Amino acid sequence: MSLHEVNPSIKAFAVVISILILSLFFDPITPLVTITWAISITFIFGRISFKKWILLFAPFLFIAIIYVWSTMLFPRLQEGHTVLWQWGFLTLTAEGFQRGVSLGLRVLSFATLSIMFALTTKPTDFLLSLMQQCKMPPKLAYGIMAGYRFLPLIKEEFQTLQNAHRVRGVARARTIPEKVQQLKRYVIPLLAGAIRKAERTALAMESKGFTGEKNRIFYREITVSRIDWLFFILMISAVILSAFISWKLGYLQFYNREL
Amino acid sequence: MSPFEQINAERLEFSYEDRTIFTDLTFSIGKNQSVLLLGPSGSGKSTLAFCLNRLYPEAVDGVLKGSISFGGHKLEAFKAGELNQKIGIVFQDPESQFCMLTVEEEVAFGLENFHIPRAQMESKIDRALELVGLEAEKKTTIHTLSGGQKQKLALACVLALEPEVIILDEPTANLDPLSSSELVETIAGIKKERPFTLIVIEHKLDDWVELIDTCLVLDSNGSLLFDGPPAQCFGEFAPFLKKEGIWLPKVVEAALTAKSAGMYRGERLPLLKSELLAGLAQPFDFSKKVSKTLANKEPILEVKGLHARGHLKNINLTIHKGEQVALVGSNGAGKTTLSKCLAGLIPVTQGDIQFLAAPLSKWKEKDLFQLLGYVFQNPEHQFITDSVFEEIAFGLKDRAAAFSILEKIGLENHANAHPFALSQGQKRRLSVATMLVHEQELLILDEPTFGQDANTAHEIMEILEGKSGAVMMITHDMELVDQYVDTVHVLDAGELIFSGTPESLWENEEIVNQARLQPPFRKQLQNEFVRREIHVAT
């Protein structure tokens, strides 16, 4: 079995439900077990290159560390909290530490699940599946697909524009009015170009008989099989199992507006 | 209506935002005919094509008067999308006519729209790809294809639907000379095997003339100037067409020149090379540019051992003061990348560029771009102000001088217009003119005549000829190279494989083939003469 072959809509559904369940709890163990689980299946069944994965994971790790630091070192002090360490205005309490770690791991658990989905799903497959399983209107789905193809083109166009203006001798903007003026200079041709490209693509799609009609016959059928549902159940069970382990260890805590 | 007439247009008039694009067009097209639709830029050729398969007027807020019928039924009588299966279209821009990621998905997209049963799709896709010679690329991602392959894919998408009419809207505009010829050959071959009605809008006519049996000509006001066989169209009306700024086939152009020199005997201008040769009294040497012997061989730009972007390899070249230089090569050979390196817009990984005896990297940007200009492919990218006058006056100390430049490029009546509101040809002239104000030592242009009608192209070349500094242009147009250029550099797969005069390039058949070029018509004709003389002698 490979994660790439799981039906994209069901995969997305499993991730969303898992995240919803995770958000019910606020303790360090539940997300930690889920993270371990998500990372293991990403690498075992997804065959993802570690470099790609860490590139996506790094920003979340950074956010998580900042969360942990700030919650740990600036806790809401309440009576009965055990003070572990104190230095000047900085106070570290056991409760604060746990809250910080819980929050950080929570962020990372959402991230690992989402990255698992993003790295094992082709955008085209996801859109095809959304149309075939979730009745997404083709007009919207093919619109998104065309837009997705545009992104690199627009980036390229922006660079060309910058170069073209450099050659004209437009000095680098320094003051705020200059920057506003510069933005205006960029926006008009970029928008004009994007609109023209979009119009052309729309015209081309229409010329191939695309009317946005809902009953299409798809060349590539994205199927749903028992394995897909098995994957779904496995994912949800894993999250519930994480909560169970946490409960057994005596850490489980429901989320109670701690943030 | 006679039974074999397939498309019938009566008193067509199209207006858009209070501007009439074309008016009073009445014509009919028979089944399996090949029609060439001609006209200067802005005469409404594409608009007419889009009206024929009813993409217009719905897609724009235009008003279409008159009536069009297809196979005896009014276009309005067809259901949405129904007509698109019968009338297919291939667009000019290879980038923006696809919406899927891979080749097979893109061909399938059209089939899906028409509810073709899934069991039949595979074989239809294979058949269409086979017809255009892309069967090996079935699973390839579209953006890795070359420009020529993309246009073949666009054609395959249309062919898969087995339409009765195929419209081609400047399908070779973005292609190098050899890819263009190949595409036309492909189309001619398919048409023989599986007849369909063909409507072509095109600037470069040479490859098409043998395939075409009818010409429809629009003038700059969008009225029908001519409707009839190409022999008559070009044979009798060539001078009118030329005045309208319509590109002529090179055979016709050559015959016009020969005729005005009293060297052509034929009654009517020829269409085929063989007819031209038969009509010529004696070997006629069509004028060409004599490469300037540069009295003052002072180099202004020297490139040594340049590598860049992992694509350009060990480039060495020199541009001299006042020299007219062309940079040619196939799609994707690295022409634009090299030109941007020379202008300091792209960093160089290795090697040395000297501009006016100082390393390019040591120049201050402000000073550099007073002496070195670059005209981008899309003129809109270079406009930075709100009026035509300000565009020219930007950075000029003597603002009064701006007016004389405007007069030179014929835009004095548009001084207050917004640059984006100009016509395509005017935008191009303006973007070139903005680079002339500082009398730069070197001006680099990326396809300056791309998509222009014959008149605008000549105007631009005249502006460039009258310029004092050196000019380097990227182009696919070998006639341009032959007529205007002193030195030509040939790029192939990131390597500079030839530098020399155009004449010496045409003599070097190996290089011409390797870089997917074609010698200019003058040279082709000369070779033909030589061949015939040998034939007569034996």
Describe this structure in words.
The complex is a heterodimer of chains A (259) and B (538). Chain A is mostly helical and 259 residues long. Chain A is 69% helix and 3% strand. In chain A, strands 1-2 form a two-stranded antiparallel sheet. The two termini of chain A are 39 Å apart. The mean pLDDT of chain A is 89. Chain B is of the alpha/beta class and 538 residues long. Helix content of chain B is 35%, strand content 23%. Chain B has helices at residues 45-52, 82-86, 103-113, 118-132, 147-160, 177-193, 230-243, 250-260, 273-279, 335-342, 365-371, 388-393, 401-408, 424-433, 454-465, 478-484, 502-507, 509-514, 521-537; strands at 5-16, 19-30, 34-38, 62-70, 73-74, 87-90, 165-169, 197-201, 214-218, 224-228, 299-308, 312-320, 324-328, 350-355, 358-359, 372-375, 442-446, 470-474, 487-492, 495-500. Chain B has a 6-stranded mixed β-sheet, with helices on both faces. In chain B, strand 19 (487-492) and strand 20 (495-500) form a beta hairpin. In chain B, helix 3 (103-113) packs across helix 4, helix 3 packs parallel to helix 5 and helix 4 crosses helix 5 (147-160). Chain B is globular and about 70 Å long. At the A-B interface, helix 6 and helix 7 of A face helix 2, helix 3, helix 4 and helix 11 of B.
